[in-house]
Fold each of these.
Amino acid sequence: MAIEVKIPPMGESITSGVLAKWHVKDGDIVKKDQPLFELETDKITSEGTAETAGKITFKVPAGTDVKIGQVVATIDEAATAGAAPAATSAPAAAPAAPAAESKSDAQSPAVRRLAAETGNDPASVAGTGKAGRVTKGDMLAATTSKPPFPVSAPAATPAAASAPAPSPLAASPSPSGRQTRTKMTKLRQTIASRLVAAQHEAAMLTTFNEVDMSAVMALRAKYQDDFVKKNGVKLGFMSFFTKAVVQALKDIPAINAQIDGTDIIQNNYYDIGMAVSTDKGLMVPVIKNCDTLGMADIEKAIADAAKRARDGKITLTDLEGGVFTITNGGIFGSMLSTPILNAPQSAILGLHAINERPMAVNGQVVIRPMMYLALSYDHRLVDGKQAVTFLVKVKQLIEDPARLAIGV
């Protein structure tokens, strides 16, 4: 009996997407719950899995625009037993192929993407990771002697080398090799349109301040080991800033509001978005009810959301409902930036690199670990005084973190 493989529902707001990649070959024997394909939509990227075991027959190639509920393949349950011997005899004709495929399958999405973009086979690259695994750094190092590819720019996921036909999403090098043209993913197109819309529709302004990270760094150094033993997760900077933002939102509620036509919607909850950079573009998973969470709960939630975003396991629900966003360009070395609003939110906080700088303290010049903060906000709703007061409040709470414990 042939079972239809359909594009699964992704939420009411998602009606279509792109079948970006097949994880199996046409005619393969697949197992129940085995990942079959990668679906890219304008909001998230997800995987489709097999509902049953059997022989799969493709109905559409990789790179095809598909609709929710569309049949993209069939699985013949009766063919499982008969096709098994053929599957076991194939390696005899090409003994080297399975080993290479196995090593490739073990690589991270970033390594597979670089392999597709540069043409470098991970099997030929010396791995420095655990158990000899090839890392993103190994792949980048292996390409230094070849023409550059846009490895840092978010690009569409190419079709797997095993796909039955070339994918429209695959990179197409020019004859000279000096350029590579790649179709934008649905997600990247949406990110682009939303960023442009945010700049066109809001009266966006950015105010800056700097914060001395000495106190927070001292707390982390003093309690890190005990924190890890008790909670199984490291105490990072993001939980401090999240708690500081929540307190500042309570003090300056105008920042926790948004415009809807001619109405102002005042949010009385504290779901904070955390910008996460992934191979497919920027995502902002939302940590719910941050005002009720402890530091350990926040750290665990951030780590979990970031991992699922980078692994392509994020859901639409994870991205909805945020009232404020924190983005940390400092992890990439950014000194200063003007973050763009995450509409319909009215403000976003940008964190940056921590650098030791000479500072005047009590009439003396001392060296302190300093970070620039940037708050971009919608001036239609938020006045300059409110924005500056909010940022000063965050600065006070970070420089004197005991205030977080007593709520002042």
Note: Residues 214-231 form the longest helix (18 residues).
Amino acid sequence: MNDISLDSAELNGRWRFDWLLPTLFQPRRTFARIAVAETTVWQTPILILVLSGLIRTLVNGSVKAAANLAAANSGAPPPGFEYYTPEQQAQLQQAMAATSGPVFTYLLPAVVTVLGVYLGWLILGWVIHLGLTLMGGRGSSRQALNVVAWTLLPFAIRDVVRITAMWLTGQPLTTLGLSGFAPAGDGNLTIYLTALLSFVDIYLLWHILLLLIGVRAAETIGRAKAWSVVLLVVIASLLIRALPALIAAQFSGLTVVRPFF
């Protein structure tokens, strides 16, 4: 399957920080190594993704906390506040105070970020493995999980870009990916399309390219079959990931709910 020979130390090393840059800029040779690894080598990219996601969550939380504090100090009530009953005004103020605390600002988003990294990687890896098996692939689930983990590295770079943008501007990011191209309006379709397009950017395309290279390195199936599996799985995952925004909007009455990850 691969012409690259590796010594036993390289095959058995779990932490491969020396593969980070080659994965992004020399993917064919690097994924050939990842595909023949005799042990799990997913720890390094998953750790990088968790750390970048947590830093992004902390910066985003601090920016939102500063914005909430500025709004509270300004004394300006939320839109339509004067039309609420005294009981509703009290409930709204309590809700705003509760959701602006550290639990909702830092803790819960951090938990969601970590779970999103691990569950997203596991589900994507297992589904990719299932799709390849159905297409005639004979690789192991360990190979699929190793390959998929390293193909997620572009999202760590996206986190760095978003962290830098929020740090420099002091403002939360409100228009992610291609969400600015969603049609205007308040309907369910607009909410869903806005959430869906927020996941689409150059880093997603980079991930898809790495995923195709990794799949081709790990399996002997044809190019058309590899493309079919990769595109179907990625498109299905995007369609599913956009659903929480639509569901949350139905319960909260918000126009658009941005995901934590």
Note: Residues 5 and 33 are 8 Å apart (CA to CA).
